[in-house]
Amino acid sequence: MAANYRSFRHSVPWLILLLEAVFILLFYFTFSDNAVLSISYPDFQDINHMVVFGFGFFLTFLKRYGFSSTGFTLLMVGLGVQCSALMEFLSVFLLKMPQEDGLRKVTKATMSVTAVVISAGAVLGKTNPVQLILMTVVEIICFHISKSINSIFLQVPGNSSMMHVHLFGAYFGLAVSSCFSEPLPRSEKNASTPKSDLLSMLGTLFLWVFWPSFNSVLHSVKWKLIYNTYIALAVSAVTAFTLSAMTTKDGKFRVAHIHSAVLAGGVALGCTDHMIQCPWIAMILGLLASVTTILGSNCLQRCLYPALKIHDSSGVHFTFGFPAVLGALAQVILIAVENKAHYPSLGHFIMFRVGAFCVTISIALIMGLITGLILNLKPFKATPVSKYFEDQFYWEFPHLAVGF
């Protein structure tokens, strides 16, 4: 086992130092901040808390993978924000887009990293630090390429294309996960405890509280988005409790249902942008998103995943993927209703929005599959199946015997 530790010691630090040297050099030549401030620090703080605290604890449900879930999330966020900020500048430079202030850039960069953290949930416990670092850099680049295609060729506003982060992260992560071996049957490490479930629910509460800020931070008229998002989250939370009791044999609430479905309304509302004018529409969307999440989780885990041999560690497909798809479909319907008076141009609007949706999923799946194949190459030393979901493979435990 010592050889495995030496390989990480000689690869992870040098890889991180190399990336940091490249980032520092590129920031030296590219960074400038002459724009007028457009986002307040409290707004940025909400997004930062949501990504670091929310997702950091959200992924701690595995009983022997808590250190890695929170620690590796922080590592991915730290590297991903730097990479995303550089990609934002590259977009401004190459595509002649308007210059933005530094706080707005770092806010958008933090939001982009959400895609990486969601994808990491699909491969949670099966990847080593080297693989996670490489996945972070590749996915950030691919997400920005997808966003640029949507903005330039399909005329989707930048704020709207940024909301595809959940869609991209879920399907990129699933594609990467399909390239990894499934865990051992009935592995005792691939399970939770009451303590780990409680910590994970703490992350869910963080995400639930800060999600209205995530959906509204890039828009000038925030109050309507905040109101609609909060209403949708409230409805999806109540619906999650209802369906959880209805779908269990003994009528008790299931933590896994609450853990995922209470966020569904916020994910779906993000894709509809500012198009929802009435709160009752947001309520219906929140209800449908929660129903889709719970019923979709039962269907996927019993039918689709065993057939395709895909192991989605934290259920990102039904937690983020399904609600994002529902939100994208709702966006198309709202566009059709809003522009029904302009019938000749209606097909144009719908075609471009559907095209953006297809481009996002296609790039996520194709690049995720390529990334997964690359991560399983011998130089990146895939984690053995016997060490899946195991903190001790990466972290020091001084109270345990050295002869692990």
Automatic annotation (TrEMBL):
Domain Ammonium transporter AmtB-like: 16-378
Gene3D superfamilies referenced in this protein's UniProt entry, alphabetically: Ammonium transporter AmtB like domains
TM regions (residue ranges): 12-31, 47-65, 72-94, 132-153, 165-184, 196-214, 226-246, 282-304, 316-337, 349-377
InterPro entries linked: Ammonium/urea_transptr, NH4_transpt_AmtB-like_dom, RhesusRHD
Entry's Gene Ontology cellular component terms: plasma membrane
Record's bilayer topology term: Multi-pass membrane protein
Major localisation: membrane
GO terms for biological process, alphabetical: ammonium homeostasis
Keyword Nucleotidyltransferase: no
Keywords in alphabetical order: Membrane, Transmembrane, Transmembrane helix
GO terms, molecular function: ammonium channel activity
Claim: Transmembrane is one of the keywords in the record: yes
Localization per record: Membrane
Classification via PANTHER family: AMMONIUM TRANSPORTER, BLOOD GROUP RH(CE) POLYPEPTIDE-RELATED
Family to which the UniProt record says this protein belongs: Belongs to the ammonium transporter (TC 2.A.49) family. Rh subfamily.
The protein's name in its UniProt record: RHD protein
Organism field: Jacana jacana (Wattled jacana)
Name of encoding gene: Rhd
